[in-house]
Each structure stands twice: as C-alpha cells, then as structure tokens.
Protein: Mini-chromosome maintenance complex-binding protein
Organism: Arabidopsis thaliana x Arabidopsis arenosa
Amino acid sequence: MGGPAYDCLTNPLGAVRFSFVNALSSGYDPASSVGKDWGVVDLFRHYFSDESAISQVPILDSSSIKWVQPKTLVRFRGMIQDMLGNEFYAGAYKDDSTWRTNKYSDVSQFPEGSSTEIQVWERRLLYCVPVPGKNQWTECSSQELKNRFLDLTGQNREKRVRVDEEMTDSMDSSTLEAGRNGSPFKKMKVGEATSSASESQVPQTSGIPPATSADSLPCLVKIYDSPESDLKLNDVVEFLGVLTFDPIVMMDTDTLDENSDALSEAESVQMPSEKVPRLHCLIHRKLETQHFLHGSSLLPEPKSPQIFKEIRESLMKYLTGLLGNDHIAAQFLLLHLLSKVHGRVDNVAVGKLSLNLIHLNKESMSIFGTQLSGALKSLLPFTQSIPLTIEYLNTASFGPKKDYGINRLMPGVLQIADGTHLILDETELQPGTLNSVGVENANLLKNLLECQKVEYDFQYYKMEMATDVQMLIFSEGKSNIMPADLVLPLQPSQVNSLEVITPETAETWRCYLATCKSLSHSIGQELQQVVENDLVAARQTDRSLGSQDLSRLLTMARMISVSYGETTLSLEHWQMVLELERLRKERLK
C-alpha cells in the first residue's frame, strides 16, 4: 500500500484539504460550523506527538527564511509582543455543489457572483517577536536540518504537484484565468472581508514595532480553534503552522479593483508580507526552559540526590571562581538563579529573590561583572543588561505604550518574557538630575523589583502586568534605586583566569538549573514548628525584621532544598539558611 495522499511537513495544506474532504463525507457542514476544527488539530498533534518529529520541522528565523519554502510547515519560537484583534476571512465556499476551504491560507478564492455561497469565519492575529535577550545557545537550526529539509522538499515536490492537481488544480487554474478572461472565480487577499484589525484609519507610517535587534525576524501568527484565554501577552510560545512568505513578490496595490472598498490584510495591519512573514498556526505549545535544551531534558526525578549534589558542587566551583573565590557570594548567587515566582499574596510575589552585589566599582565591574554576565548568558536562555546611568534613565522607554495612531503596542525595555534574567549595572551612575522620563523609569524598575509587575501605558488608562524576572544589581554601595531582597558585599580574594567550559558541561548545568526550578517544595509538619520558633526568635533578636524578611528566609530555604534535588525541607538545609543569613549580616556591619 502507498503512503498518505499528503505530507504534513512539506504539504500541510494538502493535509488540510484532504481532512476537509473526509470531514464533509462524515457529515461536517461548513454552513453551520462557524469554522470549527474538523480534525486538522488532532491530525497534526498526532503526527508531531514527540520531540523527534517536531525536530524535523525547521525553525523560522532570519537565517532559515532564506531557504524555507512557502506553504510548507515551519516552527516559530517567540514572544507575543502585541495582540492585534480578530480578522474575518472567506473560510469556505461552494464551487458548484462542492464545498472548498481557504482555512490556513493567506489568499481567499471563490467563484464570483451573487449566488456564490461563502462562509465568513474568524481568526486572531498575534504579532510575535524573537524572545528579547534570547541567548545563542538556544538556537537549534543547523545546516544539517537545512539540508535534510531541502532534500525532503525536493523528493516530495513531484508528489505534491500530483496531489494538488487532483484536489485543487481545477480551482487554481480557473482562478489564474480570472486576470485574463474574466473567469467567474475571484482571488483576493484575506481580510477583504471586514476586519476588526482594520477599523482604525491607516496612517502612512509603518506599523511594525522596532525589532529587538537588526537580524530579528518578527512574525504575524494567525490563530485558529484556540480559546482567547489560552494565550496572553508576553507568553513564550512555539507555533507550528503553514508559512506564507515570499520576499520576491511585492504587494502591488495598483492592481486592486478600483470599485472595491476592501482593504488587504497586509495593509490593514501595516505589516508588509515581504517584511513580516505570516504563519497560519495549526498547533502550538507554551515553552519552558527545558524546551530550549539540546538533546537533553530535565534531570531524573529527585530519586538520586547524589546526581544533584555532584552537579551542584561543580557549578558552585565554577561560580566561586568567577567571583574571585568568594564562596559565600557564590552560594547566594546560586539561590538567586534558582528563584522564581510561584505564588502571589495580595501585592507580594512569593518566591522572588533579587540580589544586590555591592563594593563593585568600574574597575572591579570590568573584571567580575563582565565575566559573570558572560557566564550567565551561557547558562540561562534569556538574559538582558540595563545600564543604570542618568542619561539612559532619562532617554530610554522602559514601559510599553499603546500608540493609537497606528493601533500598536510599542515595546519598552521591560516588556520581557517570564524567566528572563536582568542585570542592572549601577557602577557607572554619576550625580545628576532625573527628568520626568527618568523618574518614571526608576519607578517602573522599583515596581518590577518589589512586586514583579510592569505598568503598561494604554494612553487612557494604565494596567499592571504580572511577570517573573530575576534581577541582579551591581553597585558600589547599597542601591537606592533598586532595594533588592538580598544585599551582599562582594569580597573577592583574587582574580582567576576564565575557566573554559565544555559544551557538555554547560548543557548539564542548564539541565540542572531548569530541573531545580521546576521542582515542587514543602515543609514537613515535623519541621514546621522548628522553623516557626526560629523565625520568632530571629524577630525578637532583630526588631527591624519585617514579614518580607521572614518570607525571604523561607524562599532561601526552598532554594537550598531544590538545589540538592530535594522537595521537602530538612533540618540540615534550614540550618544552612540561618548560617548564610548570619554570614551575610556580618559582612554588612
């Protein structure tokens, strides 16, 4: 027996049409379905049910866009930077007595004439960008994948043509004749039906928000058959879908029908298709750190604490060397790197653990700060650095702002993904005066540090968006701008040469950090009373301790436990927390 009449990788639209025909034969009614999925999602979920299958799909980026083929299957990994509303399109139509579909396509085609039966369906538009601060090691496109994909498309090209001829060539050829002999078929860009994304006036300026870097490739993702609550702003998502992009073909607006008051989708959202590729999403998944690991997954469940202990020791040795043999600073740095927001009580983000390393000046920052920053880039998927200078604070745009002139959310420095590590360098801060922009930016940073929230300016109102960002501050004295959870004087004893780490070791440490952050944690009943008594005693000894200080100690206890691969706090690890806190306070005297 032969294989299927389509290939999901190189001819996904063939799979869509094939499943549509099958659904029609099983009683699917396009007239009453309102575009509801007819089995396409399950088909592709089954086809790409494991990582080995997904890895065959090329990742769309500024490099692969040069060789991937239009109308083939691609993946786009990025952050949802803006949500552009909904768009209506001609999703299905009758060709004589036969239903056909335009779903997952940029071009709507149907017979012209008042008697044509057309079903207008709806889809959502998401403007996505590469994750801000994404580090190079997370990239997984390769020359081998390129060669494999190009070979595969070449092998399937002849088969694809045969399948398309059988299923749609009569329709396509009629459409082609439309521009020559006035065929009864009409072909138009999607969105020529009314679009909620095009209701505002279209200005002459480009509506493409600035990219995160010169070689960043944004993507306009079109979402079908997914509830609105499933995806939200700033989510990091992997979209798998049909690519429609051809940099050679430029949109010619002069060829539009003068009598048509319709507006093409590309114009309506002011993102020309030759600059912003379209991806018609078939399936998607939200990404965690482990999805960026190469050839590895999370470490085994904590049944073998010896594995965690050995990896912890090697990573601690590396961090200690970076910090000039300051073992205590390395301990606190590791706890900081394992922190994450795991709950919210009122305005308190439970689990955050920002760290302010002090006694750093320009000279020492150029040594220890630079080495540490480079090391974190090799260990964490997303890292960013912000220079805390008067000039930068007074001129940069930190908070995202809605521009109603082009109906876009313009990104700010602080529109970043959950799990991002943020370094703030205060060592070059000189005396000066903050203007109104600087004051606003300083307040945004402080709110992010204290509450893990970023304020978005929608012009007529402001809204706080919850986030989860690790924040490391370098400064000479205790930062007045950034009141961190932990303040620790750095006390290096020597400058070490930068240790060369093998790719295998770096990957092991990445797996370790990702695994530890994913572990749950609890305090057993037998230890809970001990912890409570110690916290009461600590507060009686130091009346300045507040509830946030006590919460910080509990967060440190959680980080100590998971760093050893344990999900329940032990007495030994609780005592380690108290000892670390004692040593930190001694340094601050």
Q: What stands out?
A: DSSP finds 16 helices and 19 strands in the chain. The radius of gyration is 28 Å. The chain has three domains: 12-149+214-247+270-287, 305-500, 519-588.
